[in-house]
Amino acid sequence: MKKFLFILAAMLIATAAIAENEIGMYMVENPTPESAEEDACYSGAPGQFTAYVVLTGPVNDGLGTPIENVGGFEFQLIWPAGPFVTPAIHPSATNFMTAPDFFCGANIPVVGGQCTLITVTIGVFTADPVLWSLAPVSDENAQSIPGAIAITDADDNFEISQAYPVSGDFSEPIFGMWTCVVPNDDVSFGGVKALFQ
Q1: Which of 61, 86, 140, 154 might form a disulfide with 71, Cβ 3.0–4.6 angstroms?
Q2: Which H helix or E strand runs over 76?
Q3: Which residues contact 25 (CB under 8 A, 6 or more apart)?
Q4: Quick check: 155 and 12 in contact, CB under 8 A?
Q5: Is 190 helix (H, G, I), strand (E, B) or coil?
Q6: 143 DSSP assignment
Q7: Considering only CA atoms, which of 162, 178, 151, 145 is closest in space to residue 54?
Q8: Residue ranges of domains in the chain
Q9: Tell me, which fold does domain 2-195 have in CATH?
């Protein structure tokens, strides 16, 4: 019984930790845990469509409390060659770098535990499978947290907190076109399960 409770506790801790400060890309502005995998890929006809870079579960690392207004975000959005890509940051934001690097100051309200950081208009002529991912900004000297991506809390003097790609790793994609990605919840659950087999 103790082993079962330990496994259950480990799974709950892993799941809770993953849900904080995650950045993903979706076909809808308000992805749900139930639809996240489907929403993280585009399989429609070639042409023009819109996707959204969404921050889910923002938490101030220093206070351990939810962030109500995101004061900024910092990452590189890596998109494939081929598609025409037009990113539009939140209207309150200013990018101090050049896309695909986003080093933005902002004041974005968090509603329902998430907020849209970037609206991305994508145009393609062919249905070639491609993947999108996140990375730290390319200028290592500009990284607020070396080797990481970050968000800030506008209500706590722009306190910096580490953020994470929804995939769980910079080497894993967050969005696919004509190919789908595995959300980190599935990967994490499998990883926890594998520890006890």
Answers
A1: 154
A2: strand 69-78
A3: 40, 51, 52, 53, 54, 77, 120, 132, 174, 175
A4: no
A5: helix
A6: -
A7: 151
A8: 2-195
A9: Immunoglobulin-like (2.60.40)
Main-chain phi, psi angles of 184, to 5 degrees: -65, -25
Residue 193 pLDDT: 35
Say which DSSP state 111 is in: B
Single out the residue of 38, 10, 6 nearest to residue 175, CA to CA: 38
The structure tokens listed for 46 are 């070639």
Nearest 5 degrees, angle CA 30-CA 33-CA 37?
Answer: 90
Question: How many residues comprise the chain?
Answer: 197
Task: Note the pLDDT tens digit of each residue in 10-42.
Answer: 334 433 444 799 999 999 999 999 999 999 999
Give rounded-to-5 percent helix, strand, coil for the chain.
Answer: 20, 40, 40
| Burial classification of residue 36, based on how many CB atoms lie within 10 Å of its CB (0-12 exposed, 13-18 middle, 19 or more buried) | buried
Beta bridge partners of 65: 60
